Amino acid sequence: MRFTSLHLKNWRNFVSVDLPIGDRLFLTGPNASGKSNLMDAFRFLRDLAKDGGGLQSALKDRGGLARIRCLAARRDPTVEVGVTLSGTNGEGPVTWRYEVGLTQEQRGAHRTLLRYEHVWKDGVQLLNRPDADDERDAERLTQTHLEQIVSNRDFRPVADAFKKTLYLHLVPQLLKYPNLANREAASEDPFGLKFLERVMATPEKTRKARLRKIEEALRVAVPEFKDLTDVRDEQGVPHLEVLYRHWRIHGGRQREDQFSDGTLRLIGLLWALLESDALLLLEEPELSLHTAIVSRLPALIWRLQQSKQRQVILSTHSTDLLGDRGIRSSQVALLRPQGSEGTIVELAADKREVELLLEQGMSVGEAIAPLTAPADAAQLSLFR
After folding, report:
1. In this structure, is residue 230 part of a structural domain?
2. Measured over all CA atoms, what is the biggest interatomic distance in the chain, rounded to whole angstroms?
3. Of 12, 36, 278, 282, whose CB neighbour count within 10 A is largest?
4. Residue 361 lies in a domain
5. Which domain holds residue 116?
6. How does pLDDT run across 25-39, given as a tens digit for each residue?
């Protein structure tokens, strides 16, 4: 199942977004323009559908409706998230659309309630809430049908697609110094605190095959590394271990707490790409990596995408990453803050000035750089 479009209204930074989505999508823009917030719309849908999740849990994790409602929202403060998806079943291609709108009670407990919940399959509406049962019992509007097994039978492929969405922004320090955080509190684990447990929970044959592939890439980025493997220490704690070649003939073994930040992030990125065929959300994969590696990430990610037939949405500030000549302007979304009006989102392909620069031989990264840089960045040199 693939996401083909995203619609947002009054979601965080965005008053309105209508964004087509292909096999891959690069999000770029100034700091605080909303790249992470746009990705969070997909995580929100995942949290609605996942086991142990649901609407109230997803809202609580984000600080309530007031925290996700766009500050620029005026006449209609309803928060809306909608997506279209395409897939196949035994009968052929199928198109789905899911929409949810949220509002707050004006009286009483001021609960967050469903303003609506809609599902279509091939243009035929399967769900239209609120329905007669909702009108008789408003408590039902505190939950989506998406999160209820007894209610989502007719559109369960949509719920399953949402559940499988994977977000990873591995923080190397959490692997090097695991006592920095509460391991028991990390349920979703977006920052890789339990990454090694996830690796070890993979069936051995699959785990070893993935580690061999990752080692091949690591030996390009870190030529001294050899024989990447998984081990457990005397207490049963999982580790990654490599043979680090140096002046001694046989080299020496190193574990993840001795790896560089860039090495750990690259391992996490490669593992996530090999892990499943679900939508993968990546934030700034270029962090801690040399520019020579960064410039080759799009091609690497693309090859691994094709082997798994999966989608990737990633955010980046890197001109080196966006300098890959295989990236089309239709695969790049520009986020541009408009002050009190929120952030607008446009495909680079819709900007005539970008297309003119591409026709002159520039890369996408070079063509969009003036549109994504902070307008007053030069003022930083005057700071005292």
Report:
1. no
2. 78
3. 282
4. yes
5. 2-165+325-374
6. 999 999 889 999 999
